[in-house]
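Archive entry. Fields below.
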Amino acid sequence: MNRRLFPLLTAVSLLLFVTAPIIIVRAPYESTMGLVQKIFYFHFPAWMAMFLSIFVLGIASVIYLFGRKPTADRLAVAAAELATIFGLMGLVTGPLWGVKAWGVWWQWDARLTMAVILELILVAYLLLRQYGGAGADRLAAGLGIFAMANVPFLYISTEIWRTVHPRTSVVPTLPIDFGLPLWWSFTGFIVLCLALLSARSRLEEQRSTLERLYQALEED
Amino acid sequence: MAVALAVYCAAFAWAPTTLLAAQPPEAAQDGFVPMDEIPADEQLPAAPLLVAAYSAVWAITIGYLWTIWRRLGTVERELADITRRVADRGQS
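PREDICTED_STRUCTURE:
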């Protein structure tokens, strides 16, 4: 990835994040949830950034599994780590919102349960890459594709099953007063995701170069 | 002496009665009584939850950036070291 990409993306995401609170404060209160509803402006974008990372993971895994391109594998590892981080943000902000909105920290409904399982799949991917040994890269690629396949079910879970979680169909119908801070934060999270992806991919590239140099040294 | 003792006992009898009357009623012993809305002073405040959520996002982001920076630093140091070793071997 272009080395100039990371500073540019970081600067843009920082600008968006610094200005987001100003826009969020100006947003109106929601009639039933009040102040706590404003967690939504970080909660929803965090999950969207996670979904983007998982799609990168899945597509890169397909390319690596069938095309054997090492670049794709490095990108998949970077994306998996990012997806875990953004999922963690979603799993932390959600209960903080839920305890006030629903009166409980957690409920084992379809949406929340699938979210936890998806996060565990990503953790399993990372553990496999770290400790799996030879062949773990291809096994993990299969797991990455499975993670990507779960995302559409997670997204539409609130439409199919009766859950305590608000329905996803609410988001496109938001009035501009709620929509502006949401899409501002959303853009900030997506740009942050791309910035972190470029930085994390570079780390994998450097590790790969180091491994090749060690091998060359041993062969000599 | 008897009068003093009677006054003394009366004072002790009166004080707990007054204190008991001032205390809130005991919690239901035979069953729970439902209510629709809890009083405002017993509801969870929203502001600490909001601050905690935003702080968590910032903390996770900064923490993760720090781990990338640290790992990148370690790898780049190793790269510089091995490049020097390869160069030294080439010279010798």
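CURATOR_NOTE: The CA atoms of residues 4 and 10 of chain B lie 10 Å apart.
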